[in-house]
Each structure stands twice: as C-alpha cells, then as structure tokens.
Amino acid sequence: QLQVVESGGGLEQPGGSLRLSCAASGSILDLAIGWLRQVPGKEREGLVCISSSGNTNYADSVKGRFIISRDNAKNTVYLQMNSRKPEDTAVYYCHARWLASEYWGQGTQVTVSS
After folding, report:
1. pLDDT of residue 113
2. CB within 8 A of 106, min separation 6: which ones?
3. Cα separation, 24 vs 21, whole angstroms
4. How far is CA 24 from CA 47, 80, 90, 93, 101, in A?
5. DSSP assignment, residue 19?
6. Which pLDDT value is given to residue 90?
7. Which of 106, 114, 103 is nearest to 3 (CA)?
8. How many Cβ atoms from other residues are within 10 Å of residue 30's Cβ?
9. How far from 84 is each of 10, 29, 81, 87, CA to CA, in Å?
10. Distance, CA of 24 to CA of 60 (rounded, Å)
11. CA distances (Å), 85 to each of 14, 28, 58, in order?
12. Three-state DSSP string of 48-111
C-alpha cells in the first residue's frame, strides 16, 4: 500500500514563499498527483494536479501564485506557494491516483498570518 506524507507547513507571514512536499513510499512514475486544501467547515478545494507526463492543471484561486512540480527520482511532488495570503490558511493534502487506486496523506497545516 502506497503511503504519501506531506510536510513543509507552518506559521508564515503574508507574502513570501513556502514549499510543501509530498513524499511517497514508492514509485510515483505512473501516478497523477494533486494538492488540495481544506478550511474547517468548508469542502476540500482542489488546487492543482500534475499528470504522470507532467501536464498541470491549476485552479483559478492559485493560478499564477502556486507551482507544482515532481521529482520522480525522489518520489516527491512539491507545491511552491508564492505571494502567500491569509486566505491560503488551510490544511493542505496530497492526493495520488493511479487507475482506480487513490492515496491520501494526513495533511499539513499552513497558517498565513501577520
């Protein structure tokens, strides 16, 4: 069973950059991987995904600010968060998918506050 673990969250001031990591316990070569976030009381919001071939699809809420990338050699996907805003405060989740199989991480908290 593949496991994915997010890391890199924390308390950050508005502006600036932060990079989240999603590390998998096995090969991600064939996986499509996405980042989502959730605020208490709201539905989980899809932010961006990257296909196994490297194609990306961004939600309008983060387009131009967040960048997803993957390092297949390290079995890791990254989410570069630029120009942080207080409304980016949420738990960020990594989601990996291959055919009918899905894998979720436990989430990492990102708090953007001055």
Report:
1. 92
2. 5, 6
3. 10
4. 19, 18, 22, 13, 14
5. E
6. 97
7. 103
8. 10
9. 12, 30, 7, 8
10. 27
11. 5, 30, 17
12. EEECCCCCEEECCCCCCCEEEEEEHHHCEEEEEECCCCHHHCEEEEEEEEECCEEEECCCEEEE
Per-residue pLDDT for the chain (114 aa), expressed as one digit of tens each?
A: 899 999 999 999 999 899 999 999 999 999 999 999 999 999 999 999 999 999 999 999 999 999 999 999 999 999 999 999 999 999 999 999 998 999 999 999 999 998
Question: Would you state the pLDDT for residue 56?
Answer: 97
Backbone angles phi, psi at 54, to 5 degrees: 100, 0
Ramachandran region, residue 104 (left: φ > 0; alpha: ψ -120 to 50; beta: rest): beta
Helix (H) or strand (E) holding 34: strand 32-38
- Dihedral angle at the C-alpha atoms of 52, 58, 59, 61, nearest 10 degrees? 140
CB 5 within 8 A of CB 96: no
